[in-house]
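Re: that backbone. Tokens:
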């Protein structure tokens, strides 16, 4: 099994974080990006190189089966067992155990010692780990105080408690994140299209605990007039599409939608939380085989179903949760030769409420507040660190945000499940560099090598090379240094030394491989450097020899 480049990067960044950081580490990969492959590789390395034991936890038996199958494709002789009552297997003595949390949280002592716990779909774990996960982890840490923890998710936040990491949280931070937009542009995920189906009238629907009250929400949309109008649109737009998913507000709503689709000649089945296991499995099998056109669900199919052929999703369920919205839309992100894109029919005003899935407006909700409020968060385009919205600089790599940022269009008529971006090549007029330190940073805080590209009058964009950092940021710094200097045997000890070395090359007239053109993405929250066209140049027109004193200043 050939890993994709970003999967390899995620694995390397995870091991680096486990070696150099404390606390749990999060890996953020979009739906359809192959989290199972990353989990399988982590397991094999832990057992082969560490000679340790790994416990992989999840909450849905379909995910257990997928993880087990992927691991055996990567490692056919893997010493792997399954602990799941739903799958009627109780195998707990192997070096790798893939288990449901429901079947494991009371039996931590029986499971024995583990060196690494990996939690898939970790957004389902409360921020403080309360409940089944905390019970099991507490027991396992009693057996092995050095137990390490990794979580994987596409959405590292919860409606009730915000981000999954931070002070007193189960996870300390994100060690790697792959962006939806990047993986779509690289052809690893499917393009999305959106159609506005109109917003329902939620005047009489109240909010409790940050989410719409389920009964009132279902009453607001579960009328023959609303359902029939939506199903007419679904049938019309889906005429040339093969696999549909429809997400509804409740059980009664799901049955009314399924009945309306059947009357329009659409073969379908209902999959909800109470659907018997055998019936659920048969419905999913028939759906994947093309015997059913549509699956109608409430929330049961937001995880655990892997069908790359899904090419249309109907959002009939308004929600205050950006995570739920993402999980529903994410079902269509997997690529397949049978489709060019996935169409999202939004009858619930989800896109206008939460924004495109690659630029979500996360809400920070305190239960009991009533209406949720926009969370003060954004993502650094240089190192993917999640930051307060008011930040002017990234506290990890030093990236400086523009004072004014462009906002995506949120009008319902123009809403899209992906943000509207424009990529433009610009000519580089001048390149400069400096050792950069974040304003107000404590003594000893790592600096970055700031590369400043001027591409027009008063126009510039900076790139931050994280020489003094570790993990994924360090890997990117090493790659940049090799590409721009050609040096394979010299890597500066810190940013100040890097400046000295680059200045020396410039004065000597030695060739530097610096960009002559940049590909910049405009239209998001900030301009983003996404590509470069390099050429070998000499920065000094009249090379000068360095004195021995100047040479002695170079510390490598």
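Recovered sequence:
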């Amino acid at each position: 099994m050939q890993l994709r480049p970003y999967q390899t990067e995620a694995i390397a960044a995870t091991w680096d974080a486990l070696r150099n950081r404390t606390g749990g580490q999060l890996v953020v990969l979009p739906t359809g990006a192959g989290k199972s492959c990353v989990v399988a590789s982590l397991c094999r390395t832990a057992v082969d190189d560490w000679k340790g034991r790994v416990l992989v936890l999840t909450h849905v038996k379909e995910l257990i089966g997928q993880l087990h199958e992927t691991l055996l494709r990567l490692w056919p002789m893997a010493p792997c067992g399954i602990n799941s009552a739903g799958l009627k297997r109780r195998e707990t003595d192997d070096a790798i155990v893939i288990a449901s949390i429901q079947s494991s949280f009371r039996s931590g002592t029986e499971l024995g010692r583990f060196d690494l716990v990996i939690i898939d779909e970790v957004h389902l774990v409360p921020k403080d780990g309360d409940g089944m996960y905390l019970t099991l982890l507490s027991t396992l840490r009693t057996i092995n105080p050095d137990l390490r923890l990794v979580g994987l998710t596409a959405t590292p936040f919860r409606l009730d408690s915000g981000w999954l990491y931070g002070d007193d949280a189960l996870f300390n931070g994100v060690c790697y994140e792959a962006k939806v937009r990047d993986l779509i542009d690289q052809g690893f995920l499917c393009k999305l299209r959106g159609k506005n189906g109109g917003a329902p009238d939620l005047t009489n629907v109240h909010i409790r605990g940050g989410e719409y009250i389920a009964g009132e929400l279902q009453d607001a949309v579960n009328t023959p007039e609303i359902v029939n109008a939506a199903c007419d649109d679904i049938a019309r737009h889906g005429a040339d599409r093969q696999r549909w998913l429809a997400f509804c507000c409740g059980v009664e709503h799901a049955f009314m939608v399924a009945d309306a689709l059947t009357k329009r000649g659409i073969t379908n089945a209902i999959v909800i939380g109470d659907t018997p296991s055998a019936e659920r499995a048969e419905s999913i099998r028939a759906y994947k085989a093309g015997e059913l056109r549509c699956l109608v669900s409430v929330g049961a199919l937001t995880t655990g179903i892997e069908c790359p052929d899904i090419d249309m999703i109907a959002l009939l369920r308004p929600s205050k949760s950006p995570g739920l919205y993402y999980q529903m839309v994410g079902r269509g992100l997997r690529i397949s030769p049978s489709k060019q894109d996935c169409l999202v029919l939004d009858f619930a005003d989800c896109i206008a409420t939460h924004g495109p899935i690659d630029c979500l407006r996360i809400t920070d909700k305190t239960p009991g507040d009533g209406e949720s409020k926009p969370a003060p968060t954004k993502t650094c385009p240089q190192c993917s660190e999640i930051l307060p919205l008011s930040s002017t600089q990234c506290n990890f790599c030093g990236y400086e945000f523009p004072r004014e940022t462009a906002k995506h269009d949120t009008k319902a008529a123009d809403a899209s499940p992906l943000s509207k971006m424009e990529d433009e090549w610009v000519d580089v007029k001048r390149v400069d560099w400096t050792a950069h330190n974040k304003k107000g940073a404590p003594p000893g805080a790592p600096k970055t090598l700031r590369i400043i590209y001027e591409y027009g009058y008063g126009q510039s964009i900076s790139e931050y090379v994280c020489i003094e950092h570790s993990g994924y940021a360090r890997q990117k710094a090493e790659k940049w240094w090799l590409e721009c200097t050609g040096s394979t045997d010299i890597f500066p000890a810190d940013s100040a030394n890097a400046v000295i070395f680059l200045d020396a090359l410039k004065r000597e007239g030695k060739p530097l491989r610096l960009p002559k053109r940049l590909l910049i993405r405009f239209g998001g929250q900030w301009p983003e450097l996404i590509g470069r066209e390099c050429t070998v140049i000499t920065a000094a027109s009249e090379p000068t020899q360095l004195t021995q004193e100047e040479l002695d200043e170079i510390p490598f």
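The mean pLDDT is 81. The domain at 5-178 is CATH 3.40.50.300 (Rossmann fold).
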